[in-house]
Amino acid sequence: MVNLFASTSETPEQAMESIERIGFRSGEKFTEKLFFDQPPTSFQANRVGISSFLRHSFWPIAFKGNATILAGSYENMFTIEDTDFIWTRSFSLTGYSKSNLQLYLQYSCGMIRGAIKQLGYRAKVTGSCQSSPKHCQFVIEIS
Questions:
Q1: pLDDT at 94 over 80
Q2: Angstrom distance (rounded) from CA 106 to CA 15
């Protein structure tokens, strides 16, 4: 899917917007189904509750991994770090381009944003890779 949008979009920015939008809808639907199957027992509607939901309920199922929540410098901001992110793990085994890697991260950012939207909040999510492609960080700013 990512390669299709990358090759058919007129500009890289247009591809990133389209992929993020699809990720957003996927995140909304995924969270809706997750809540239908396992309603949250005690959800706090604040930064701590959202970060806890993402780490314990959303991340292990959506991204098949463990995430660490890093405290943000502001009340409405925090960072999720995954040192073995499954969707970009293969990039470390092969040659990769930063632009393709960023497209995969955009879909993930959209999914996270869609999940937060289902919790009743708006968010800005940016993703980046640190020392290797499989070591990813997602900065989440809730508004």
A1: no
A2: 10
